Amino acid sequence: xxxxxxxxxxxxxxxxxxxxxxxxxxxxxxxxxxxxxxxxxxxxxxxxxxxxxxxxxxxxxxxxxxxxxxxxxxxxxxxxxxxxxxxxxxxxxxxxxxxxxxxxxxxxxxxxxxxxxxxxxxxxxxxxxxxxxxxxxxxxxxxxxxxxxxxxxxxxxxxxxxxxxxxxxxxxxxxxxxxxxxxxxxxxxxxxxxxxxxxxxxxxxxxxxxxxxxxxxxxxxxxxxxxxxxxxxxxxxxxxxxxxxxxxxxxxxxxxxxxxxxxxxxxxxxxxxxxxxxxxxxxxxxxxxxxxxxxxxxxxxxxxxxxxxxxxxxxxxxxxxxxxxxxxxxxxxxxxxxxxxxxxxxxxxxxxxxxxxxxxxxxxxxxxxxxxxxxxxxxxxxxxxxxxxxxxxxxxxxxxxxxxxxxxxxxxxxxxxxxxxxxxxxxxxxxxxxxxxxxxxxxxxxxxxxxxxxxxxxxxxxxxxxxxxxxxxxxxxxxxxxxxxxxxxxxxxxxxxxx
Length: 499
Description:
Helix content is 45%, strand content 10%. With 499 residues, it is α/β, with parallel strands linked by helices. The chain folds into 2 domains: 73-206 and 385-427, D-Maltodextrin-Binding Protein, domain 2, CATH 3.40.190.10; 209-381 and 436-497, D-Maltodextrin-Binding Protein, domain 2, CATH 3.40.190.10. The strands form 3 sheets. It has a 5-stranded mixed beta sheet, sandwiched between helices. Strands 6-7-5-8 form a 4-stranded mixed beta sheet. Strands 9-11 form a two-stranded parallel ribbon. Helix 3 (101-117) links the parallel strand 1 and strand 2 (119-126).
């Protein structure tokens, strides 16, 4: 046989072998449905990447123009005194290196930005901070560029025309990942934003509410693994009730349930109903297609059914310790009882969960249960937060916008990962599964304006009063309060849209 024919034959064999290998690879990666694998498609254009190699995400950057120079001007964030608000991480600046990882990260972030923009960042803490800030604006004394106020207080400031709308602040790009778009969009009214939450501020992380569960007690009682229930979509209100009832024990044998016994659930009274209704996907004050909020629980069958069920679980089944005290001292009692293995579940914020680091028994973190198995998502309540509001006395909006944008951008790369990965996933949680729960929880955080802007009339108003008194006549309470609530909502809408 001639060499040319041998060469052609060998080429044909090689080609057949290559085609066979490609076909086998496609079949192996196509899945049971015979379709194209996303991995195969995605890797097709990555000739230098291994099949299982995870490509790095593009670096997150702000879009601020080059060369911004603020000539040593001060950028001041005014807030309350940290020692008066131990439930919050009031850390906008750190003046020195302290050895605390988070404080040092904030210090390094701010000094980096000061050099970049030739500016000075300061955190100013004031007592009686609501009245102090209001007096400052009215006196035009230039106390600071940003006021960190609770959201329901910001609404009051806004209706009194004491704030500059965020649309008038340059450089803020709300579509950037470091501004929490889902939370911010829930706080707008008629498309207007009085403030926005960003990663320069830890408060919405601090105020995210979760369920802690005592792993030792759960195992001793022979109950199902809550992690498995969550992952399988079976973590529901009914399952919570079932496990809570199995935990009830008269430990001191006095035939009366008191602070010496074991319960299924510990929580401040005012937190019980909102944690469950928000986890069930219910909003007491949703918004219409024009971004206008409205009161929406009258005749809401799902809300009525859920409230009735929670009253049964807490008041009739006794799984909730009936402490009708809503102050911070009560929260400390709940934590002590949980540490003493006196409850299977404990309502907590992420910030307060850190108080249990010295607890002997193992504990885990869960989202609140779904309404039923048909509900697809585990929603998590964000109780509120310290939003960055811009006082009308601010005369340097360019500095303000640039610093807020840059601080949030730097934070998503430095301080937030440290807060999230170290403070939460390492110090607070005790197993890898709790860390998985945190990812799920953070991805589905929800605000309800009846729990924030108008909390004084709805959550802390008639609904809290009902729960404290075991008053189950929901329809009559809605009827008695509907006009007042609607008037307050409308007053806010009119005042803001008129500006």
